[in-house]
Amino acid sequence: MVHEDVGTSDMSSSLRPVLKLKVDELFLRWLSEADTQENLRENLKLVARGESVNTNNNASFQYRSGGGSPASPLLRIGSPSTPPCSPPPPPAASPSPRSPRRKSSLSRLSNSLSRSQAAKFFRDQRQSQSPALKVHVPPFYFPMGRPVPSEENEEVIQRVSQLFASLPEERAYKHQMDRVAMACKCPQYWKMPLFIAAGGEKVGYVTSHMYLTMWRRLIRDCHDDAARLFRLLAKPGCSYLVPEDFYPFIQEVVDTHPGLTFLLDAPEFHSRYIHTVIARIFYCVNRTWNGRITLPELRKSNLLSVVALLEEEDDINQILDYFSYEHFYVVYCKFWELDTDHDLFIDKKDLSRHNDHALSSRIIDRIFSPGAVLSPESVREGRMSYAEFVAFLLSEEDKKTPMSIEYWFRCMDMDGDGYLSMYELEYFYEEQINKMEALGIETLPFQDCLCQLLDLVKPQRPDRISLRDLKQCKLAYIFYDTLFNLEKYLEHEQRDPFACNRDAENEEPEPTDWEKYAAEEYELLVAEEGAQEGQQEPNSPEDVDYPDDFEPEDEEILTLDLQQKLKLSEPPQRNQWVGNNNGDIEFKSSVPL
């Protein structure tokens, strides 16, 4: 009995490959019939149109051989899957399932499958559908700008060649580079970066070959103004801009802009103005707070449009972004008033005197804390540089800009988790309460103040305030002044609620808070400078004296007070602010108005 079971299992295992081959052969015959192919074509068309396939027709498909009977007894209905008893052993001449004859039958079956009409049909279908599957996606990301037509570049090269041919010895000197820049369709104040990139700084001039070699290399990789100016300013192989890269560029603006001709007689003040402009550029453009401007940051900023505006506007003070000389004068004088020892740095004690001790000591401590807004070197030394003071003053006097909102958020985020917790808000508000109590002002408990701040900001989560919440609420300046600037907080409390409605009726755009502050401070500085000059000059015969306007005692008090203010705001007389090889700056003399 044991031998019979063994024989039965061997027989069934030997029949399985043969059965599979027979089933494949029968399926191939069925698939090759005309009726089957016609039904398959109709079903494929239904599938292509998105319609449902009728399965009732498929159920009627039956294999029919030439005689109408099944071709193999293995497919008869009711036949068992395995024989009831083990068959006699096969003769020696019969091939085994592992003989080479099986491979030949498989090869014949595969050849018949490949030559069948169904295989040809499916192959034609794949070939007909293959072009539709190849979808051409045009490029949509151009890190160096969208390429311009080659004809346009050739026109620029031809125009530049004609310009050099018209120059003596085909050389362009520094004062002639504005014509070359205009021939390249670039703003004329690109002339110094173009001159330096072509090698003109080494020999003093640029030839046609030198310039065209540089220009072809530039337009080959850079296709828009942002990428080209970035490549002209950056050091070779450098992927970012540092403050030193802007020095020659801004110096050329100082030397040639008609609105700065009065500075030609005072070259010792050039570096002061240049450092202020560069500090403002990095404050507005460098949004990563790492002191390195990347190409995407330059492309997203308005620096290119402001530079193009320089050749259209002769009054430098009308260019309020970056280049206004009045803004520079205000920033410089404010820094000079705080820098009592005139070492070009201010510490916590100096900064606390800003605006008559308006800022709380806790926010000043946070400004000088690691990881807030100052560089690691400044934090380590406990001193703020001039460029960092520019960022501080812009942020303090205009808390509505995205840069200033980020500036004060970094200062208030004590644990650096990216949120302002209720504990941090209470920490800064405690000093405000102490100040108001010392001044005899009625205080508001923190719980009530917190409710007002949350209603003001409307954060997504009631237990924390994010930077996104402050930027979206449009009232971040009130939020910040409430927590660490008592003077401005009291101004907000006493302001006219209908003032905003009256300002909205004006068609002209309202100046920013920084522009208002700079204009007011500049007028005060000019008035003080005029009073100082009036005291130094002798009275002219045309001067009229009105002795009855002031009482003697009032006039003496006013004179002493004015002298004290002039003494505090008087610029230096013996120091110069000059750049050296290390990138540092030094003071010299006073700033001309």
Please, could you describe this protein's structure?
With 593 residues, the protein is an all-alpha fold. Helices cover 57% and strands 2% of the residues. The protein contains 29 helices and four strands. It has helices spanning 2-32, 34-49, 55-59, 100-115, 117-133, 150-166, 177-183, 191-197, 200-203, 208-221, 225-233, 247-256, 270-285, 295-300, 303-309, 325-338, 348-352, 361-367, 376-381, 386-397, 402-412, 422-438, 446-457, 467-473, 476-484, 486-494, 499-504, 513-536, 552-569; strands at residues 171-173, 205-207, 419-421, 464-466. The strands form two sheets. Strands 1-2 form a two-stranded antiparallel sheet. The longest helix has 31 residues, at 2-32. The protein is flat. The model is unreliable at 1-8, 58-106 and 539-590 (pLDDT under 50).
